[in-house]
Amino acid sequence: SGHFDAAHIAIDEALASKQDVKNSPLLEMPIAMLDLDDKIINLFEKMGYKFVGNLVGVDDGHLLKTVPMCGEKSIRLLRESVTKEITRRRLLEEKHNENDTQSYSQ
């Protein structure tokens, strides 16, 4: 997975920077609130990764070396869970914006 690390970092930073002020609480979201197995959450929390924002810019290789008992699958599940949460928030925001537009046109 080593050559994918740079891509993950770029994606993480792009996603973090795309979050506008309204969505910034995503970075403050406890990873315990993500759709993840408790075992995975505990691995990351023990090493100080308690919030989504703590993971921005941290590459897979660093996590593999510094989080005991953490494998590539755990990292993949964590990243997928964050991506799902970003998607969920964007869909909610789009729906909210559609509702605003509809209320003005009536």
Name the shape in a single word: elongated
Overall pLDDT score:
81
Largest sheet, strands/sense/barrel: none
Indicate the radius of gyration in whole angstroms: 16 Å
Distance between the termini: 52 Å
Low-confidence stretches: none
Overall helicity: 55-70%
Strand content: under 5%
Tally of helical segments? 5
Number of strands: 0
Structural class, judged by helices and strands? mainly alpha
List the secondary-structure elements in sequence, H or E.
HHHHH
Furnish the topology, listing elements before pairings.
Elements: H1 5-18, H2 25-28, H3 38-46, H4 60-66, H5 72-105
Molecular structure report:
- The protein has helices at 5-18, 25-28, 38-46, 60-66, 72-105.
- It is an all-alpha fold and 106 residues long.
- The longest helix is centred in the last third of the chain and has 34 residues, at 72-105.
- The chain is elongated and about 55 Å long.
- The model has no long low-confidence stretch (mean pLDDT 81).
